[in-house]
Amino acid sequence: MPIDISKIPSPCYVLEERLLRRNLELLNRVQTASGASIIVALKGFSMYATFPMVKQYLSGATASSLNEARLIFEEMKCKAHVYAPAYKPQEFDELMSYSSHITFNSLNQWNQFKDKVQGFERKISCGIRINPQYAEVETDMYNPCIVGSRLGITRDLLGEKLPEGIEGLHSHTLCENDSYTLERTLVHIEEKFGDLLHQVKWLNLGGGHLMTREGYNHEHLISLIKRLRETYNIEIILEPGSAIGWQTGYLTSTVLDIIDAQGIDVAILDVSFAAHMPDTLEMPYKPRIWGATDAVVGNEKPTYRMGGMTCLAGDFMGDYSFEKPLSIGDSVVFDDMIHYTMVKTTTFNGVGLPSIGIWKENDEFQLLKSFGFETYKDRI
Ligand SMILES: Cc1ncc(COP(=O)(O)O)c(C=O)c1O
After folding, report:
1. For 233, left (φ over 0), alpha (ψ -120 to 50), or beta?
2. Which domains are present in the chain?
């Protein structure tokens, strides 16, 4: 049964619980068949109201900051895998208290913190991030292998033997990719770091594995993972973010005004691409809207540009054709707006943050949060 938009406030990020469960079931099947550990990357999906369900299926979570690590510890009730380009000395003790694994981005960082981590009251498994200098990511903004990338250590900076105490390698070079990109990437990882893989207990292959996208070849991924586990006798960890929230929900919005901008009909919405859907401008990509298609040229269909509610000139997305004309007060629902949205929203221009809710499996809507002036004021 489709969800009933009239029961949901505007604007609101709304996750469909049954769609999330479907993703989690699939990820768990891959996890079980391959023997890999799949953990959720909070940078892409940190809607913690769902953590009890996520935890039923996945092996934990990965954090890129103290805040994310603490959220995992408090809300998922497990210890976090952590990686960040650098750690703050004044936060490190607290960070350790929430962590099971810590990956360092440079040998400097490892040398700075190794005594602390090795002297900690319980074992924390430490790794270093490597840069295999191969990525099939078209947008430089999301490519960790651009020339001069600060993310990970290139092979020339590592000797024949890993530093004492390092028991894992971490490589993140994928972005919404399939298993064939992973296969081509593994050629570079193994060519450059293969000898070191024999020295570690685990290899974390980062995120970017879009296993929940239609057409992804899970059997192929499973065979790649099995081969790695057998060849090097290591644990394989995957930490996708997007794949968890992929196509699990929407951003609802309302038409506030319709204007004629020099011949272009613009629907001004109560949401902002810049503040609420920043990836649409960063990547960029054109989000799908329920009941609309790309502008149909030379056709009679009513066509509109979607205008964001900030005064940023570029805060718009166009153009879309609808079956019938839009009116002020109509709902406009953006599809696939759960991953990398809530985690990135801002109150730029003082715009309010969308509410957050869940369309439950029993077909009831649960409003989790609404935000007001205090949220805006707290941030500045
Ligand atoms: C180190 C690391 N791990 C995991 C992820 C999650 O990637 P994705 O959400 O594309 O699966 C990212 C994303 O940038 C990352 O930088």
Report:
1. left
2. 5-12+249-337+345-378 (2.40.37.10), 35-245 (3.20.20.10)
